[in-house]
Every structure is written in C-alpha cells, then in structure tokens.
Amino acid sequence: MYKAIVNEAESFTLDFRDGYFELDGKILDWNIVQTGRKAYHVLWNHQSFRAEIIHIDSFEKLFTLRINGHDFTVSLQDRYDRLLEKLDMQKDDHQKASDIKAPMPGLVKDLLVEEGQQLQTGDSILVLEAMKMENILKAETGAKIKEICVRAGDAVEKNQLLIKME
Hints:
The protein is mainly beta and 166 residues long. The chain folds into 2 domains: 2-86, Lipocalin (Beta Barrel); 100-165, CATH 2.40.50.100. The protein is built from 1 helix and 17 strands. The strands form 3 sheets. It has a 9-stranded antiparallel β-sheet. Strands 10-17-15-12 form a 4-stranded antiparallel β-sheet, with no helix packed on it. Strands 14-13-11-16 form a 4-stranded antiparallel β-sheet, with no helix packed on it.
C-alpha cells in the first residue's frame, strides 16, 4: 500500500489487490487507454481526462503528471517511508548540499570535476587512494561546486575538506 501526496497538499492511499487498484480503500472504477508513448485517456467518475507522464524520479518516488493541461507532482511513500517518517528519520525533501570531506586518510589520485560544475546525485567527484585501493567519491545530492580545496597528488587526512558545495 502506498500513500500518495499530490502537490504536497492532498493525500490518499493507493493499493493494488486482486488485479484492481484501490483508492482510499475503495476499488477504483476507471478505464485507461494508452494513446501515446507517455500519454493516456482516462475515464473515471463519468469524466474524461487526458493524462501525460512528464517526469519520473523512481529513486525519490516522485512523478509529474499533466492532466487536462494542469501539472501535478505526486510523491509516493511505501510502508518503509512511512515508518521512517513515524520515527522522525526521513530525509529532508530539500536536502542541503554537503561539503565533501575525506572519509579516510589517503591520496587524491584524480579530480573528476571543476569549480562551477553542476552535479547530479551519484556523479563521480574524485578518486581517493587509501590502503592501496582507489575509492570514487560521489555526489550525495544535486549541487553546484563552489570551490575545490585539493589537487591531484595531495595527501589528505580523515574529515579534511576536499570540495565546498553551494
């Protein structure tokens, strides 16, 4: 079962059981036909809707839909997301970019970015050699590089600032 939050305001539960979708515990009586690659025609509650999938972020479980020309952002939470929220352990939706610090002492082998570069979550930032192993440090969130504080060949200590983010 999922909790769906639309435009950070309205919420409802969504489930799939025995081949049917349930919306807030009631079977969703609808008809949906794909009309294009990401376009659909939906009949629901005696009304006709044109729906289009604009964007999907499967990692964050975020979807942008255009229905009859109006955009809606839908966030899905599964039972694990709701448990983390209940325990007040959910991650901030607008996670701040963290400066990159050395996770261990080592040698900067290669810089894979430059100042002013915009990063996406998961982008490789630099190669740090430690204990004869090369470790690639990656961006934890999308951010812009403000300042690079090291150069290839620099020896660094644990928790030393490597890159300032903005």
